Amino acid sequence: MRHGLSFGGSPVKGESLSSSRPEGGGQSLLRLINSVAVLSALRESSPATLSNLASRTGLSRPTVEAAMDDLVEQGWATEQRAGAEGRVGRPARRYAFRADSGYVLGFDVGAHRVLGVLADLNGRTVHTSETQVDPQLDADSRVAVLRTVAGRCLAGGGVERARLMAVAIGCPGIIAPDGTVTVSTVIPGWVDLPLARRLSRSFACPVLVDNDANLAALAERSHGVARDVDELIYLLIGRRIGAGLILGGNVHRGFGGAAGEIGLLDPPRWERVRELLLGPATTESISDRDHQVTQDLLEGARAGESEALSIVDDFCAVLARHAVAMTLTVDPEMIVIGGGLASAGDLLLPRLREHVDRVCIRPPRLATSTVGEEAVVLGAVQLALRAADESLRHGVATRA
Amino acid sequence: MRHGLSFGGSPVKGESLSSSRPEGGGQSLLRLINSVAVLSALRESSPATLSNLASRTGLSRPTVEAAMDDLVEQGWATEQRAGAEGRVGRPARRYAFRADSGYVLGFDVGAHRVLGVLADLNGRTVHTSETQVDPQLDADSRVAVLRTVAGRCLAGGGVERARLMAVAIGCPGIIAPDGTVTVSTVIPGWVDLPLARRLSRSFACPVLVDNDANLAALAERSHGVARDVDELIYLLIGRRIGAGLILGGNVHRGFGGAAGEIGLLDPPRWERVRELLLGPATTESISDRDHQVTQDLLEGARAGESEALSIVDDFCAVLARHAVAMTLTVDPEMIVIGGGLASAGDLLLPRLREHVDRVCIRPPRLATSTVGEEAVVLGAVQLALRAADESLRHGVATRA
Question: Which InterPro entries has this protein been placed in (chains A, B) (predicted)?
Fold first, then answer.
């Protein structure tokens, strides 16, 4: 179904086609470029008629028709029978993008669990599989669990492994651009693990690894309170404060993957403040959502109990210190507070607002996360979908 | 020489061509796409033979030849007479990008002066003009000075205004995405000035306005110590500390243009520390380079005088606080210290190094600026060149 032949994209990109270009390649190349343009337009607005697509791409109708014939033959699109729409004459041919023409896998690998989601190219969840693990499990065994969860997702969804277009994994720690974990204090044996390379043995498609807060930010932008916010900071509150940054609509990872490690600013009193509010430290970064200590304390603060209020105030002062430093640096449109306190926006946001407004010249909107505990795995699916889109744009010619 | 007709780029971009597409536009469109690809390849590596360009673009040689004929006719390229290169047979035709096929203007508008540079499309300075102004000059008069400086640059370079492809202006303050100054404490009457819109009456090409630190960062990346660094923080030391951020190779301005306003973290003692080292406050953001007080103090510190060392230590502690907050947020590859202390790297960098290494998990490289006092105007030229490149990519069809 898929060939190894790689297609390098538009001619502006350079030399990638020169070696594999067939004789008379000029014409063939242009047909491919047109197919990519038409598929891209169809992906953004499906179903569509030939006229819609011609208008969206600026291509002529016969050119679009030829491209659509190719795309249907290659399995990327399907022709729909048009219903009677009350118009005179032959109904217009309509085409739909086939969301089942490919799949992606997203994972959340934490200390306590490995969660996997199989999704189609529209991001619809096809199958979910979760396995609880011992926080002390060594890295090799944890990778083996990940492989098992992947297999269960594929089997559960009835999808062949060869149809995967991208795999993305979120985990705590700093991930180098090549998908190697360089810093991790949460998962045993995780440091220096070339996770992307290790997993590329199990998958023929691109394998991406990213920091959990980065992916939670991506999920918040796709499904949550920060929908379509292009300049976003997601503050993930766990044992420390970490952040995921979306800048210009994309995850910003920094030179060595260490962007958002704002928790290193945590003042000495942070651990005590955190523990008072969130209960004893765990090794999980997103957790404790319904922890009773926390709920009691938040209720106390809402009821005006002075000790509870003082804890909430102290906690917010630390959060604000981090939010301010990041706001002055990147000027986000919005800051989202994620982790175990998403339900306490009524207490947190006004306090944060006051601190941030006092210092920042252009203060961002503030909100608590609405995505919940599956933020990391849903963000992983989003990251994998972006990689699949990239393949679609550059790789429409790789199917026969 | 130039028509108003706008060309919308690749077919992937969408509908921009549908209204202006001539009959039989499919073929014409493809020819334009090829011209853009060939011009882009020529711009990156000029001069080049048809074979070079065919290899770089992945297009066939006849296609490249047709595109080059168009580009020469339109004035973007010139055919060079090939010298004897010791090879048998007819010498290969070579083409060069015409750097004089367009020009850009860059400006540094400060409290004390307006500096303008006219440059060709290779970024070579063609003419420079500078006018000293009263720091209290009102905004209208200052804009008038800018127009005069622009006229002098064009006259001095013998370049018609119509050949300008982009104009960029750097000034202190926060600049909204539409080129309006929203915050400025340095230039009288500058706040709420729609500078880009005001100047668009004087220029037919795009007019961009940006913060001075952003442009200094861009210059440092083009000409200075941060050459080709894609993740860069440029700390501009003036009355406060401001920063320009390059992320992913581009200036990061943030949602409202307020990225890098890290000076709002300045501790209460900053003004005193700054004044001890840099002398009395001026309203200029980059200045005081050769201020005698500063030089004496730096010499004192180098000679081990304890009072001078203490001032330098205090100053570096404040700088480090800002550098750390920004590093933890965006994880830059390099931080450059610019402003009046570029010659004091021997004193500043080891002290900063110590602070930054103590906190940051992946510490950046540290350096002092090597571009000097023309950083802002040279950065403005770079920004204008980027806009011109964008026009080249999307607008090659606009000449007849």
Answer: ATPase_NBD, ROK, Tscrpt_reg_IclR_N, WH-like_DNA-bd_sf, WH_DNA-bd_sf
Mean pLDDT, residues B235-245 taken together: 90
Distance CA A314, CA A267 (A): 11
Which pLDDT belongs to residue B287? 47
pLDDT at residue B400 tops 60? no
The pLDDT value recorded for residue B23 is 35
Looking at this predicted complex, what is its ipTM? Answer: 0.84
Q: Is the pLDDT of residue B168 over 90?
A: yes
Boundaries of CATH 3.30.420.40 in chain A? 102-212+377-389, 225-370
DSSP assignment of B345-392: HHHHHHHHHHHHHHH-SSPPEEEE-SS-TTHHHHHHHHHHHHHHHHHH
Find chain B residues with C-beta within 8 A of A33's C-beta: 10-11, 33
Q: In the prediction, which pLDDT does B8 show?
A: 28
Residue among B10, B33, B325 whose CB faces A325 most closely: B325
> CATH number for the A225-370 domain, one of 1.10.3720.10, 3.30.420.40, 3.20.20.140, 3.30.70.20?
3.30.420.40
Count CA within 13 A, CB hemisphere, residue B214. Answer: 29
Can you name the residues that pair with A166 across neighbouring β-strands? Answer: A104
How far apart, in Å, are the Cα atoms of B325 and each of A117, A251, B214, B262?
36, 19, 18, 8
Q: What is the pLDDT of residues B10-49, one digit of tens each?
A: 322 222 323 333 333 344 556 777 788 888 889 888 899 9
CATH pick for A102-212+377-389 out of 3.40.50.300, 3.20.20.70, 3.30.420.40, 3.40.190.10: 3.30.420.40
Tell me, which fold does domain A11-97 have in CATH? Answer: Arc Repressor Mutant, subunit A (1.10.10)
**CA dist., res. B72 & res. B98, Å (int):** 9
The alpha carbon of residue A215 is apart from the nearest alpha carbon of chain B, in Å, by 16
Q: Do A40 and B262 touch (CB under 8 A)?
A: no
Q: For the residues B311-317, what does the mean pLDDT come to?
A: 95
Do the Cβ atoms of A111 and A137 come closer than 8 Å? no
Q: What's the mean per-residue pLDDT of chain B?
A: 85
Q: What are the structure tokens assigned to A69, written together?
A: 């014939």
Q: What residues of A are in contact with residue B362 (Cβ under 8 Å)? A: 174, 182, 254-258, 261
Shortest Cα distance from B156 to chain A (angstroms)? 36
Subunit contact B37:A12, Cβ cutoff 8 A = yes
Among the partner-chain residues A11, A253, A264, the one whose CB lies closest to the CB of B57 is: A11
Q: B58 contacts in A (CB within 8 Å)? A: 8, 11, 13-18, 21, 25, 29
Measured distance CA(B103)–CA(B193) in Å, rounded: 26
Q: Domain spanning B102-215+376-389: which CATH class is it, in words?
A: alpha beta
The nearest CA of chain B is from the CA of A146 a distance in Å of 28
- B212 min Cα distance to partner chain A (Å): 16
Partner residue opposite A58 with nearest CB, options B15, B57, B326: B15
Residues lower than pLDDT 70 in chain A: 1-30, 82-90, 281-290, 394-400
Tell me whether residues B259 and A12 touch, CB distance under 8 A.
Answer: no
Residues of A in contact with B324 (CB under 8 A): 265
Q: Which of A342, A289, A338, A286 is CA-nearest to residue A171? A: A286
Cα separation, B340 vs B285, in Å, equals 9
Weakest-pLDDT range from A166-175, A278-287, B165-174, B319-328? A278-287
User: Start-end ranges of CATH 3.30.420.40 in chain B?
Assistant: 102-215+376-389, 225-370
Nearest to B58 among A8, A325, A326 (CB): A8
Q: What span, in angstroms and rounded, lies between the C-alpha atoms of B217 and B221?
A: 6
As annotated, the residues of chain A forming the CATH 1.10.10.10 domain(s) are 11-97
